[in-house]
Amino acid sequence: MLTGLHIAIIGGDARQLEVVRKLTELDAKLSLIGFDQLDHGFTGASKEQIDQLDFSDIDALVLPVSGTNSEGHVETIFSNETVILTKEILAKTPNHCTVYSGISNSYLDTICKEGKRNLVKLFERDDVAILNSIPTVEGTIMMVIQHTDSTIHNSNVAVLGLGRVGMSVARTFSALGAKVKVGARKSEHLARVVEMGLEPFHLSELEKHVTDSDVVINTIPHQIVTSSVISKMPTHTLIIDLASKPGGTDFRYAEKRGIKALLAPGLPGIVAPKTAGQILANVLSQLLLELLNNREENK
Ligand code: NAP
User: What pLDDT was estimated at residue 274?
Assistant: First the structure.
């Protein structure tokens, strides 16, 4: 149980409602900032304005998956108010206050570092990334079905990258009957592709391996699907770029060549916000329990 822990949930989308649900079940005291248009009332949670909340007894700040933008603005789907997390707000929190965010940027990194507050980036954790790859793959399947006129079964699919998302994508498309090749640069990744019963290729030979692709799915957050690579693809190839913005594809050139290339960020929040929220809520509740135990030990 999280009894005695005071947590400020600042902004977010439908995923954050699962976090609120779970943390109220665990008896945490919640202050919700950026939720004024939310009809649902949660017992033990009160809606607050950021400039009126007393931060002096806040044990944890929970930000949305996106964290803040480069000026500190926090995305608030359930409010029209402007919510900005500043270093002055952080300075009002107790020293042990921990900030939880999906991802971070230099603004958030800097204010936490300067304010000496611990920042936990949930999406950097393997458990969150692996579980999140499940709704990401389902969203990818949805996009491929929507944007092609052939079955996935029997189609030629090239997956770029064998990280947490790439592995789930490759395995699932193969299970659907696609002929899957996977491009990677590490020999252990290429060996894993062999073990999975798929066709490996080194990324240095990418151009050779896209000449028969029906679908190319990129998971590498680096310019990898260059104009030169795109020029070797058949014109009917569909490129789905899952890598974080700006993706790894030369979208300008793809458009010029008449190849459909789609950047598809945030699929878990789009196709399965409830599951995506539960993934975050489960990990977060575990981390908050550790925070509570540490706080008690240091009293
Ligand atoms: P990951 O586990 O770190 O995997 C990244 C892969 O990219 C690894 O195979 C890595 O290989 C490779 N890579 C990185 N830089 C490279 C480079 N310069 N050249 C060649 N290969 C390179 O990351 P992940 O969790 O799979 O996530 C992949 C991307 O998808 C991230 O950008 C993430 O933000 C994004 N994502 C998107 C969604 C969505 O909804 N669209 C959902 C979840 C995640 P090495 O080991 O050789 O470096």
Answer: 94
- Cα atoms found within 13 Å of the Cα of residue 72, Cβ hemisphere only: 13
Round to whole Å and give the CA distance between 198 and 96: 48
Rounded to whole angstroms, how far apart are CA atoms 88 and 95?
A: 13
Give residue-wise pLDDT tens across range 237-250: 999 999 988 999 99
Contact 168, 137 (CB under 8 A): yes
Residue having the nearest C-alpha atom to atom 2 of ligand 1 = 163
Cβ(127)–Cβ(283) below 8 Å: yes
Confidence band of 296 (pLDDT split at 50, 70, 90): confident
Find residue 101's DSSP bridge partners: 121
Query: Does the Cβ of 265 fall within 6 Å of ligand 1?
Result: yes
Output the CA angle 284-49-270, nearest 5 degrees: 45
The enclosing H or E element of 40 equals none
